[in-house]
Fold this sequence. Notes:
The radius of gyration is 16 Å and the shape is extended. The longest helix has 16 residues, at 3-18. The mean pLDDT is 75. It has a domain at 38-88. It is built from five helices and no strands. By secondary structure, it is an all-alpha fold.
Amino acid sequence: xxxxxxxxxxxxxxxxxxxxxxxxxxxxxxxxxxxxxxxxxxxxxxxxxxxxxxxxxxxxxxxxxxxxxxxxxxxxxxxxxxxxxxxx
Length: 88
């Protein structure tokens, strides 16, 4: 990991801790199926993003891979914010 990226992650983690947020808050915020009511009411969504039998996750992965943006390191948003178990 580059020094710039490491520094950015440290700043992000400091902000997260400074707001008194915990891993439980992160888990709650990332809850499966949680949507913004205002956006849902406006008909904004990704339902039409996947073509045919492809599910939404596969469609996103395919698009990110096509654009050269797919990171297969296996990390999670939680690891990004709080640091992986190896760095704690």
